[in-house]
Write a structure and sequence with these properties.
disordered N terminus, mainly alpha, two-stranded antiparallel ribbon, Rhopdopsin 7-helix transmembrane proteins, 3-stranded mixed β-sheet, globular, 5 strands
Length: 308
């Protein structure tokens, strides 16, 4: 579509992770296996928490929701990426790009906030055990989940509107395997300083706010664990937090590195691999990490496999 001497972009071309067809075939099967493991592992968590009464606590309610988010999170990028590995022209419509970016940012933000809620749940369970059932009742859990989704969707709406409000009248080649903010901003034929400010203030408040709250929660948790006299009591208390801490480290590290830097420092060739870590690899690891460190989930898996 022409506008004066400039061509208005109506679709984008996703350059993907490699230009080699042989490497694309290898990546196709690799990411297909990752995706199937993600779907299978998280579905097991969801089914287990629904079928077995021992999973009625708030911790498993949030874990179930985390698994639902992980399935949706990977599904925003992986199916399209797998399809693009098999075709020569890897296009995505302008509207499709908007939808993908909005969904990805919303689900990423929701997961940040849910991990924060899970840290608060562990804080109440360890620091205020006598009041745990009163504080973390069903209504509070539902309210915390709803707030996580609302804030995440509002943040994503702001990011998406500001990103696609820019004019795109030059190249339509996105040096990435999906529509993400930094590579999209690189294609805009206008000044993007305002967008960077919005990205740092809105996205940064979600990422850094969540991370700081999680760290504050664990400071209180560690203090409470140190006060526990028995060694077994300390180990049991810490084991309930170890899985969550592992996911927090894997998720927030690359996510912060991607979205909390100026786009001038963004390397299109190097940094497009980071979303593979927190957008594909971590959702696959979540059920594995929680299952391996949780006897109740292992027991539920044995019961389900025994009935098959």
């Amino acid at each position: 579509m022409m506008s004066g001497n400039k061509t208005l972009v109506t679709e984008f071309i996703l350059l993907g992770l490699t230009h080699s067809h042989k490497e694309e075939i290898i990546l196709f099967w690799t990411f297909l296996i990752f995706y199937l493991i993600t779907l299978g592992g998280n579905l097991v968590i969801i089914v287990s928490t629904i079928l077995f009464s021992c999973f009625n606590s708030p911790m498993y309610f949030f874990l179930c929701n985390l698994s639902i988010m992980d399935i949706c999170f990977t599904s925003t990028t992986v199916p399209k990426m797998l399809m693009n590995f098999m075709v020569q022209v890897k296009t995505i419509s302008f509207v499709g790009c908007i939808a993908q970016l909005y969904s990805f940012i919303a689900l990423a933000g929701a997961e940040c906030l849910l991990l924060t809620v899970m840290a608060y749940d562990r804080y109440v369970a360890i620091c205020k055990p006598l009041h745990y059932t009163t504080i973390m009742n069903r209504r509070v859990c539902l309210l915390l989940m709803a707030m996580s989704w609302v804030f995440a969707c509002l943040n994503s709406m702001v990011q998406t509107v500001f990103t696609f409000h820019l004019p795109f009248c030059g190249s339509n080649q996105v040096n990435h395997f999906f529509c993400d903010i930094p590579p999209i901003l690189k294609l805009a034929c206008a000044d993007t300083h305002v967008n960077e400010i919005v990205l740092y203030s809105s996205g940064g408040s979600v990422i850094m706010g969540s991370f700081l709250f999680i760290m504050l929660s664990y400071i209180y948790i560690i203090i409470a664990i140190i006060k526990i006299r028995s060694v077994n009591g300390r180990l049991k208390a810490f084991s309930t937090c170890a899985s969550h801490l592992s996911i927090v480290g894997l998720y927030f590290g690359p996510g912060s590195f991607t979205y909390l830097r100026p786009t001038s420092n963004y390397s299109l060739d190097r940094d497009r691999l980071l979303p593979v870590l927190y957008g594909i690899f971590v959702p696959m690891l979540n059920p594995i990490i929680y299952s391996l460190r949780n006897r109740e989930i292992v027991g539920a898996l044995r019961k389900m496999t025994g009935k098959l």
